[in-house]
Amino acid sequence: MLSIVWIILLSSSLCNCLDNGLAKTPPMGWLSWERFRCNTDCVNDPDNCISEQLFQTMTDIVVADGYASVGYEYINIDDCWLEKHRSHEGKLVADRKRFPNGIKALSDYIHSRGLKFGIYEDYGNYTCAGYPGIIGYEEKDALQFAEWNVDYVKLDGCYALPYDMDLGYSTFGRLLNGTGKSMVYSCSWPVYQIYAGIQPNYSAIQTHCNLWRNYDDIQDSWASVENIIDYYGNNQDLIAPNAGPGHWNDPDMLIIGNFGLSYEQAKTQFAIWSILAAPLLMSVDLRTIRPQFKHILQNRKIIAVDQDPLGIQGRRIYKHKGIEIWSRPIGPLYQNFYSYAIAFVNRRTDGTPSDISVTLKELGLINYSGYRVEDLYENVDYGVLYPNTKIKVKVNPSGVVMLKGEVQFPADL
Ligand code: GLA
């Protein structure tokens, strides 16, 4: 009898994976890094420095201005929240001047507004900006995060050895889980390995992390967004199959509403991120964002594509002379026919919009009962179209047209 119990226990512990039941759809929220960086100068720049006030303010706006009601729920600190040294007992301490009430108070504030709280650390000796990393303190720090009621941990990979990450990242994920407090686990494991010339073990990564960075940090420019789009398109055979409910590729933050993207480009970032089933982490000053950018970030139809419960990452299915078509299978399904979100992207810069004409069949929409087609930005309903119907869209330079084709069931069903 005892040995049977032992065998059951043993087999249930064979999977040392994360399996925390979180991030069944890509996480949505706000993250400080791209917009606010490592601004620690609260004396000269009190409104923009990394401080508890900044996170409280963003929390308030996420709730008051409608972001929470469309799905944004995490308020996440990035780098530069720490004191340069641990306490005498080896604990992590938030900067005493900029977070005078400490992390637990901030976490409580965010939770009291109905949102969730995320924090940043680094697997190595230091964070990328030079604050204490977790190495040597993994267990202590995991417990500390649980005590602070953290809901989401981004673990960066500066000042660490990429070869050690297979063990280090998986161990820390297990420690987080072992605290009994469920925390979304965001890893930078593959990106540092890729830069070190190591082929990441994506099957291990997707069992231990809820999301992971594959590529460069996003910067405030269209060139940076284009680079990321190209990376995910050019490497899709390797990358796309790893995404699914509970585990996502992370092409980095949304920079919509900052200085670098035009209105068209911002729409393109949002459309492609939703095709990629990407986490939607806004990094923007919500106090000053212009209404048209807010409108993009709150587009419920595109958010629904991103959050599609099937969790299948989309792909670039066409690329020629600056025109790209991206496609993502989504629900509802009829038999084995999916519905689809389709993004037509114009990477050309020749001033006038470009026409793209294509039949549904050419896009892979082959169900004879047809598809109800609508434009997700323009709110145009094209009605039910069939595989042989040719559709024509006009796409602005560096812009996008995004359609959804919802599979139709045969009339006699
Ligand atoms: C790395 C990460 C960024 C950000 C910074 C903070 O570069 O990739 O997302 O967290 O570190 O220093």
TrEMBL record:
KW Signal (keyword) present: yes
Domain of life assignment: Eukaryota
Keyword Iron set for record: no
Name of the protein described by the UniProt record: Alpha-galactosidase
Main localization (coarse): other
Subunit structure: Homodimer.
Family annotation (InterPro entries): Aldolase_TIM, GH, Glyco_hydro_27, Glyco_hydro_27/36_CS, Glyco_hydro_b, Melibiase/NAGA_C
CDD domains for the chain: GH27
